[in-house]
Specification:
The protein has about 240 residues and is α/β, with parallel strands linked by helices. Helix content is about 40%, strand content about 15%.
């Protein structure tokens, strides 16, 4: 695992790395010296993230992957195992929101999309990558959740429920894997300002930025090997 801030030479896989929080995390890890595998469904945004990493002197690889498709995730894991030979850091960031309607008005297909991505997708990634970490007896798994997984979110019940589920999954997984020297953490940010997730009525200058979440991930992977932060609740200093 990371020791004294050094992740140079380690391999990190970041889902949802094409934009927003995932892209910021990928850039941060590359800046710390990790070789970052960028995963998302669409290649174009991933290539944009890869270019920004290369311009800063970092290393990354683009791999299209739909986390809601087990075969797609297994294919990514097989590539990482055969081509890179290791995985040290897995960041499960890929996620979707909802249409902002009362639960009784939410179409069933939207419910399925939210849970298939936000919960099932994380399970698929853990199922596919954790065995490599167990064999190596090292690793970090970091799940990007939300404060909506701690608090009520009217007109966002399905999203909130998916993040509550993700939190419970993370806490239990941490207990399952700690004896394998694998640390599992969950990061729960409040509203984050990205161009893809507008928050009507909030001051974007006071909201959390993607780089704030990336900083929390950097703290986790550079923490002393004798401890780990199982949960980080991230809030803006000023209420937006």
């Amino acid at each position: 695992m990371a020791d004294n801030g050094n992740v140079a030479g380690q391999v990190a896989v970041v889902t949802g790395a094409g934009r927003g929080i995932g892209a910021a995390i990928a850039r941060k890890l590359a800046g710390l010296g990790a070789r970052v595998v960028l995963g998302a469904r669409t290649r174009g945004p991933l290539e944009s993230t890869a270019r920004s990493i290369a311009e800063a002197g970092g290393r990354s690889e683009v791999c299209e992957c739909d986390v809601s498709d087990l075969r797609s995730v297994e294919s990514l894991a097989q590539y990482v195992g055969s081509s890179l030979g290791r995985i040290d850091i897995l960041v499960n960031d890929a996620g979707v929101g909802g249409p902002g309607v009362p639960l009784h008005e939410l179409p069933p297909d939207k419910w399925e999309q939210i849970f298939n991505t936000n919960v099932r997708g994380v399970y698929y990634c853990i199922r596919s990558f954790a065995p490599m970490m167990i064999s190596a007896r090292r690793g970090h798994i970091i799940n990007i959740s939300s404060l909506a997984g701690k608090n009520a979110l009217p007109n966002g019940a399905a999203y909130s429920a998916s993040k509550w589920a993700l939190n419970g999954l993370s806490y239990s997984l941490a207990e399952e894997l700690r004896n394998h020297n694998i640390r599992v953490s969950v990061v729960c940010p409040g509203s984050v300002h990205t161009e893809f997730t507008p928050h009507v009525g909030k001051d974007p200058n006071k909201m959390l930025q993607p780089e704030d979440v990336a900083h929390a991930v950097a703290m986790i992977v550079t923490q002393s090997p004798t401890s780990f932060a199982s949960e980080i609740l991230l809030r803006p200093t000023m209420k937006p």
